[in-house]
Amino acid sequence: MMQIRPYALAALALAALAGCSTTPPKTEAPKPAPVVNSAPTAAPAAAPAAVPQSTVATVSLPAYLDPKSPIHNERSVYFDFDAYAVKPEFNGLIEQHGRFLGSAPAVSIRVEGNTDERGSTEYNLALGQRRADAVKKALELAGAGAGQMEAISWGKGHPKNPGHDEAAWTENRRVDLVYPTK
């Protein structure tokens, strides 16, 4: 057998590598087809860019949950000492809530009567109930359904202001309109 010398083997390897090319062979670009009609034509209109659609769902909050709504923010009717007549300054607030409740029959509220700390427990519970009943009646006159509302009294049990002076008592003589939290 014949032995291949290392020099010859190296020369064969170099010749094989020289035959390989890393650049692709050149191909000729196709020629455009000849124009048959030489009349000028308008350029095609560019297609409008596609606007991506949002995948975020829009949710509309009911007025009683929307922090920008007066129904959400204005929910207390205040009373004079030892009185349960609704003051004229609260008629607008009551009308707003009454109209809203009339337009949303599935929504129900609690009308919660409160008093200041003066007076006996029994007296304050009765006065708080009379205040809640007065506001409930006014809401009905403004459009709310009687079945949408429950009037209760906390008496002096849920003070808004824990103080023991006229300013605190003024804040505590009230009716709160309490809507569901969801």
What does this entry look like structurally?
- With 182 residues, this protein is α+β, with helices and mostly antiparallel strands.
- The chain has a domain at 70-178: 2-Layer Sandwich (60s Ribosomal Protein L30, Chain: A), CATH 3.30.1330.60.
- Helices cover 32% and strands 12% of the residues.
- The protein has helices spanning 6-19, 70-73, 91-103, 121-141, 166-172, and strands spanning 76-78, 109-114, 149-155, 174-178.
- A 4-stranded mixed β-sheet has the order 1-4-2-3.
- Helix 3 (91-103) crosses helix 4 (121-141).
Question: What is the gist of this entry?
Answer:
The protein is of the alpha+beta class and 182 residues long. The protein has helices at residues 6-19, 70-73, 91-103, 121-141, 166-172; strands spanning 76-78, 109-114, 149-155, 174-178.
> Looking across the biggest beta sheet, what order are the strands in?
1-4-2-3
Helicity level: 25-40%
Count of separate DSSP helical elements: 5
Q: What would the principal axes of the Cα set say about the shape?
A: elongated
* CATH homologous superfamily designation of one domain: OmpA-like domain
How much β-strand is present in the residues? 5-15%
Overall structural class, as computed from helix and strand content, comes to alpha+beta
> Under the CATH scheme, which class of one domain?
Alpha Beta
Mean pLDDT: 84
Distance between the termini: 96 Å
What name is given to the CATH topology of one domain?
A: 60s Ribosomal Protein L30, Chain: A
Q: What is the rounded Rg? A: 42 Å
- Unreliable parts: none
Query: Biggest β-sheet, characterized?
Result: 4 strands, mixed
Give the tally of β-strands: 4
Annotated CATH architecture of one domain = 2-Layer Sandwich
From N to C, what is the helix and strand string?
HHEHEHEHE
